[in-house]
Design a protein that fits this description.
The chain is an all-alpha fold. It is about 80% helix and about 0% strand. It has helices at about 5-30, 35-55, 65-85, 90-100, 105-130, 135-160, 165-170, 180-210. It comes from Actinophytocola glycyrrhizae.
Length: about 210
């Protein structure tokens, strides 16, 4: 087997490995979570996204950069779903280290949400539309990431209104009346940061690895 073939094989196997990692993490997170109803609400994006990505794998295979970002997002969700975002241990460690008034795990989660959605949107736009790398692409991608973030806030508000205590834990506002606005600001920052930091790497992966979608 040539070096090129080995590289291609690793690239083909990586999405399967990442998928297995996500499925194991979600399964482990389901073992005695703080509140099962909240766990289900939290992991719902992963449970919806995985079948879609698997079903469309043969027609639209994302780059390794996008799959890795999606995996980080899914693992973050799984951990938060198990403990609840307001009580996640990494957030408590960060809270103590920075002497914060609240557990910031959800804030970090929204930064990751903005970054992941921006990478995915960027890839779809570059492969399926006439848009090319540049300012207009960044504007559209950022707008799409913000739209997704706003959609999540609407869903969260609705869930909180109809599910009582489960929804209160799910919202995890920790007494902040401007929680939704801060969440969207974090998503905005994540979307901007990931495009600034990884656009060259993303473009290289798109050029080297993938054909345009059919």
């Amino acid at each position: 087997m040539t070096q090129r073939s080995r590289t291609r094989t690793r690239a083909d196997n990586e999405p399967r490995v990442l998928l297995a990692l996500v499925l194991v993490a979600v399964g482990v997170s389901a073992i005695a979570p703080r509140v099962y109803g909240t766990w289900l609400l939290e992991v719902a994006p992963v449970l919806l996204a995985v079948p879609i990505l698997v079903a469309g794998y043969s027609r639209f295979r994302f780059t390794a950069v996008a799959y890795r970002a999606l995996t980080v997002g899914a693992l973050f969700i799984a951990l938060g779903a198990h403990y609840s975002y307001a009580d996640a241990p990494p957030g408590e460690w960060l809270r103590a280290w920075l002497d914060l008034d609240r557990n910031p795990y959800d804030r970090v989660g929204h930064v990751i949400q903005g970054a992941v959605s921006a990478l995915v949107a960027r890839e779809v736009l570059l492969r399926c539309t006439p848009l090319r790398p540049g300012r207009w692409l960044a504007v559209v991608v950022t707008g799409m990431a913000l739209a997704l973030s706003g959609g999540f806030e609407i869903v969260e508000a609705f869930a909180g209104a109809v599910t009582g205590n489960v929804g209160e834990v799910y919202l995890g506002t920790q007494g902040d009346a401007l929680d939704a606005q801060w969440d969207m600001l974090c998503a905005f920052g994540g979307a901007i940061a990931v495009q600034w930091m990884f656009h060259r790497t993303h473009d290289r992966h798109l050029t080297e690895r993938l054909p345009r979608s059919s």
